[in-house]
């Protein structure tokens, strides 16, 4: 049994509160247990310089943590004057994950900027961010269709993410902070609702591990993604 | 009548949700209408270098806006690599306002860092931030007393803030964004619950104005602060 | 009696040396006692990006202190790689104060950049800067008229600034550094020559204060501004 | 057949020139075909602040590309004033990979800084960097033993890395730049010489992919790592 | 004849106004014609980290130009967030020049920071800065002697600097901006009052030049330095 | 006799390996003894903003040291977020030296960026960099001629550089690090192959020195440059 009384293959309580932010074209307050991430999607009718006049759009992401979203306060990146390597790594992952399911040609010369801001952190902020960002992005793209700027949703797959890990030699799903900080192996899975792979990152925290552990974590991830994808669809009124 | 159907001397719907953030020593989600600011107070058992070994504590504040808290997305300061002048001006104001009511000697060699993060903006973010920061600060100081680190609350006065302005030649209280952007005069009042002055900043946006207008705005501010201070006390269970 | 043997309502010896800088379109070496600020106005035939092609001009200000303008040396901001919050706050104030009296439409698509550099500091640098900047700005705008680029001076009011404060419970005018560092209340007034309000900022340094003190400081400020405005006019040959 | 006439499971010509840099405690010029990375290991007899007086050592890594190591010149990060997200992501990966095989307690309060500088790039710089960094690190740690500062090598496993990908639906090993830029799937494997997993990162570049492709790439990676690990041992005179 | 009606070997009108800045331990407003540089020397009773506990002192210099000291306004370095290469080059030169005549051991564990700020520029700012900095430094060191902190002046030689150049094939002394911008060769000489060499920097601006030109410029420099050194002594009351 | 068994007028073993970098238009691995500098020349078909539409080209240079090119590791400038003053001084010198021999008008609206990266340092990196940069630049310009973009080489003179110094009262040529760190006088000469002066920088490290020493170093420099220029021509196949 896990400290949270969850089974190894059990997600935390997960919710997607679509439309949370008044001004954004799409938004979603995403909760994976005590991890709360506000995701917004902002549509801009221009693309970054490297794409100008190429007839294609772009999706990018930025990530941040409020200074006291964590157990002890972390420095405000804006005050330090730069983003940490961890922040950049995460926002690059979010952007890549979402771009992999968007038809950028069909999007046309516009950019969607995804902002994922962690209001409260308890492990798994990047997977919560990706899962919630999909909901915000969907709404923002849907608005473009409603406003007559696009004929149809330029979205291929549904994307969701979840973490897995091995704690005390047991593979488990959706780690909270306490589990994460004692995990022997740490893995993040970004999959489609059908379970196909968009991105996997796995790291041995303590000592190298065998392929079998990766397979077992992958099995757990598929179970979790299946549920998360269903919750995303419900939040979007698609199910 | 104002666009929001408020009387000139009427506040927006204001609420203080104390204890919103799980990890912080004190916290408050503050809403002035559609302006939502998350205020946290973090206690650190050390002081900044300029105060080391001087037997006195410190209170400082940082302020930020989520990129899509606003009508159109603003740049993320952490990505730009620096805070704007506006941000610095506001966080200096918040810190000054709170320090003015704390007995820093009695606080001892520790620092309270106030973080005010605007989740959603609709005018008056700095006054909402100050008012909510007081609630978070109170709780954090109270925790120091409960934990036996302080004998009594090192707080002199109760502090709250509100904006006033002149729109269409009419002095009004607690401007929303639409009013703020058409105001002829803009003023921010930081007062004690008894109406004494901690800080006033007033600016002619259009053309110089007469002293009488300042007096009238001051009268409105006192009315507003009176209500806000009462709501603060209720949120803290003091009334 | 004040340490400087001044009466409470007495200004320091004030002078405006117009045309001090050889290259600038307008310039003024401003002295408020031992506070010496060099103000220059530089005209550029272009506007910042956010104003391009909008048929309006802009006035902005930058402020700096020479590292050894102060009692003990302060870090050079250029070497630190950023301007302090105080610097940004002051330069925003100067810019706002001057823009409030310029007809930006009439100025056309050009920008006036005001540089206020403190050569020597003894309190009240921001109010000296605003007062001297007006003289430099006037000359620069006058040159545009002389050069046939403008038909008439795009200036509404005359603007000047002065500090007031309460020291030892006595309201006084135009504080020097020694007075400023022991003041209970600190206030800066930016007024027109007719005494109308452009900006007021007042802060309790020690404990909250009552409205009556604000009124008394306002009275002193009007007296001071009256004299300063006259000296500005003399420096410009208008009186 | 691949453009380079390699079989799908064939590495490029790989070499490790140990001792390339005169001053460093350990160094290795690493070549994976036309990708050339200079890796140095510098020993410092102190640890970063967060580890002081904790009786443990640290291994960290920095990564850079010479501006004209690439097809078209890239900006010099030192001149831009910051490292890109990609650079930070890679140097974090290198550091993590090496720390996973070092006994930090046994290393004692000292730090090894790994510098990986890309002299010439043709795909797979991060995997070449990790593989070469291991050689440099080994030598630097060996020197600590020779100098009597450590009793035995604080190294658990041997670590090497290689990229795999899917190009034209065919899984291939050790991609060069041309292959990398057309790959449907991109994966980096950091394994021990025994084939256990230290880190895997895999990304769908075009569309989501199935688990079977991951397994096939893993098989290729094991083949490649086996050869690379043997070349590392030869370079170190261990085989 | 030169545009300024000077002979080739004639200096501009040069003056050293010692004690110009009220707060600094030593100061000098230096004028080489229309080039005006304020030099201050600030004494700090500590040394930079790399010299701590080594029983030796340090002299360093910082240099800056007011934004409108020049014909057209230049960016404020503090606002840009970094100093230009030119600025750094000049301040390194000033520091080196002064350190070469100070007995750093005898100075003890204290630092003198020289600030050279260009109030108005008309060519030759770096040579004016060095020459004036010597006067400020002398006074600051003399104050240490007067205050009983040093037994005698830790100064070896007197140092002064002047520029030379070749304009229209004629070697000339002490170029103003107009001459500097059309010079074929540009040279800066830092010499002792006895004409010994501390630093020479010479650059062909147009095409390579012969040794004879260097000798002739050296001859002019000695003439100029002789006069400048005498003016320095007069300003210091030594002659 | 020198520690390296060289005569005072003897260069270190010098080599130019032209074409070292696969991607650059011109490149040269330059060795002055144990000082190894990789120089690349990158041609861009555009000019910096200040030259746009002026019908002239530009040559600029950047310089860097690998962190462990030196005896003890130096900070990575990209990680520190800024280039040191020394780096900027050197890259400005390299750029100036090369521009002095290029006909920028004839080059047309394109820019050549020279990158000089120190792989290993043992004194004299800036003179090695200039000498090698000339070889890289020559090749890059030659390629423009071969590609039909230029009719003839826009090069006036051949440029090379070497250091001299006075160690133990003896003037010597081409100092290594050990000599450089004990030199009484340090000088860098940038000359044409015919011995004409492009740039000279000389500094007294210990005490002021006399003109005769400068002449003697100049004589040594001419000897050295003569040999270096011959080696450059051989590397380029011109001799």
Count all strands of chain A and give the number: 9
Which protein chains are joined by the largest interface, and how many residues does each one contribute?
A: A-B, 35 and 36 residues
The Rg value of chain A, from CA coordinates, equals 18 Å
SSE order of chain A: EEEEHHHEHEEHEEH
The residue-averaged pLDDT of chain A reads: 96
Largest sheet: number of strands, sense, barrel closure of chain A: 5 strands, mixed
How many H/I helical runs of chain A? 6
Oligomer: homohexamer
Structural class of chain A: alpha+beta
Query: How does the overall form of chain A come out from the CA principal axes?
Result: globular
**Strand percentage of chain A:** 25-35%
What distance lies between the first and last C-alpha atoms of chain A, to the nearest angstrom? 32 Å
Task: Please give the share of residues in helix of chain A.
Answer: 25-40%
Q: Can you characterise this structure?
A:
Six copies of one chain form a homohexamer. By secondary structure, chain A is of the alpha+beta class. Chain A has six helices and nine strands. Chain A has a five-stranded mixed beta sheet with strand order 1-2-3-5-4. A four-stranded antiparallel beta sheet of chain A has the order 7-6-8-9, with helices on both faces. In chain A, α4 runs parallel beside α6 (211-235). The first copy, chain A, is globular. The first copy, chain A, starts with 13 loop residues before the first strand and ends with a helix. The mean pLDDT of chain A is 96. Chains in contact: A-B, A-D, B-C, C-E, D-F, E-F. At the E-F interface, α2, β9 and α6 of E face α2, β9 and α6 of F.
């Amino acid at each position: 049994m896990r400290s949270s009384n969850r089974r190894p293959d059990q997600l935390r309580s997960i919710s997607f509160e679509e439309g949370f932010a008044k001004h954004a074209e799409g938004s979603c307050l995403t909760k994976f247990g005590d991890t709360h991430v506000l995701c917004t999607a902002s549509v801009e009718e221009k693309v970054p310089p490297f794409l100008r006049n190429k007839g294609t759009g772009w999706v990018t992401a930025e990530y941040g943590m409020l200074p006291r979203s964590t157990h002890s306060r972390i420095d405000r990146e804006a005050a330090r004057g730069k983003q940490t390597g961890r922040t950049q790594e995460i926002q690059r992952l979010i952007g890549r994950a979402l771009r992999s399911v968007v038809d950028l040609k069909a999007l046309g010369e516009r950019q969607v900027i995804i902002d994922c801001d962690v209001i409260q952190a308890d492990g798994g902020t990047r997977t919560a961010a990706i899962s919630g960002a999909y909901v915000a992005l969907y709404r923002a793209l849907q608005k473009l269709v409603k406003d007559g700027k696009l004929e149809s949703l330029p979205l291929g797959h549904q994307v969701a993410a979840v973490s897995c890990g091995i704690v005390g030699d047991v593979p488990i799903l959706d780690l909270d902070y306490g589990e994460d900080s004692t995990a022997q192996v740490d893995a993040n899975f970004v999959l489609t609702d059908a379970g196909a792979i968009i991105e996997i990152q796995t790291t041995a925290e303590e000592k190298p591990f065998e392929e079998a552990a990766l397979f077992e974590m992958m099995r757990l991830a598929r179970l979790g993604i299946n549920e998360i994808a269903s919750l995303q669809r419900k939040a979007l009124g698609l199910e």
